[in-house]
Design a protein that fits this description.
mainly alpha
Length: about 300
């Protein structure tokens, strides 16, 4: 019963995370013509304050585990590139759901990077799923010169690649026993330090509503980060990761109702279906493999 209960908690946490990240996408879009650097700074500044409060409340040290510092810097650098790619795509693409699905390629790249750097074996079926998911990406990006959104689409895709690299670092540090809340704190602090000089020398004045929207970007980002961290403490990735794709559904709904009736085109829907189908296939396959091993 306890296992089922923890799995349910994990699913609820990952759904909460997906909902928060969809809200973040909407508020990024609503904030208008604010430069991406400025949006990223406020996204991480609010998350930094929340991370500090969370660590202090739990009486946890503001200190990394031995041997994790270089991975914190690597995770933060690659993760920040991923945030830039995602924010640029979300701001420039006509459909925030398109930007969201491109970012959701990160689990596939986590699998690839884990195989390369952590020596985790990729099974043939997983490799096939990754290859087919790439086909889905092509339907979303539509890589032709006629596509006026080709640059933000590629940036969104590269953001997903970078996020996969960041999650690989998080996974490695988690195996070393690193505190997830400290990882959020370090990343937020690093991101603020990198983007602060831009604000000092090229701050763009904002309206009251833009201030509100960017604060909400940070609140939603923090909720998403802590939600997904909590989810994986309750249940392993193989049991709950597929539910993270609900973010695309939440983002599409909010895009339609709050961002001027956004509706992705037919080819994007084909891409969504292919990518999500491969995610479900990997989810089912991983669970079957795990159940087979524990019964042997």
């Amino acid at each position: 019963m306890a296992t089922v209960n923890n799995r349910t908690k994990g699913i609820l946490c990952i759904l909460f995370s997906a909902f928060c990240f969809s809200g973040m996408s909407s508020f990024i879009n609503l904030s208008g013509d604010v430069p991406v650097f400025q949006k990223v700074f406020f996204r991480n500044l609010v998350a930094l304050f929340i991370a500090v409060i969370a660590l202090a409340k739990n009486h946890e040290p503001f200190k990394w585990k031995k041997g994790c510092l270089k991975y914190h810097f690597l995770r933060s650098g690659v993760g920040l590139l991923g945030v830039f790619g995602n924010f640029y795509a979300t701001t420039k693409m006509a459909s925030t759901a398109d930007a969201a699905i491109l970012n959701k390629m990160s689990p596939f790249f986590t699998l690839i990077f884990s195989a390369i750097f952590l020596k985790e074996k990729v099974k043939p079926r997983q490799a096939v799923a990754i290859a087919i998911a790439f086909v889905g990406v092509l339907f979303v990006i539509k890589p032709t010169m006629a596509n006026s959104e080709i640059l933000p689409s590629i940036c969104g895709f590269l953001g997903g690649v970078a996020a996969g690299g960041a999650y690989t670092c998080v996974r490695h540090m988690g195996n070393k026993g690193e505190n997830g809340r400290f990882t959020v704190f370090f990343f937020s602090m690093f991101s603020c330090a990198v983007t602060l000089p831009y604000l000092i020398f090229d701050f763009h004045p904002m309206t009251k509503m833009q201030w509100v929207y960017l604060i909400m970007v940070g609140v939603c980002a923090a909720g998403g980060q802590f939600g997904i961290t909590a989810a994986y403490t309750f249940a392993p990735s193989r049991e709950i990761s597929v539910y993270d794709y609900s973010n695309v559904i939440f983002t599409a709904i909010s895009g339609y109702f709050f961002l001027g009736g956004q509706v992705p085109d037919l080819w994007s829907f084909v891409g969504y279906f292919i990518i999500c189908a491969m995610a479900v296939w990997m989810f089912v396959y991983n669970n079957k493999e795990y159940n087979r091993k524990i019964t042997e």
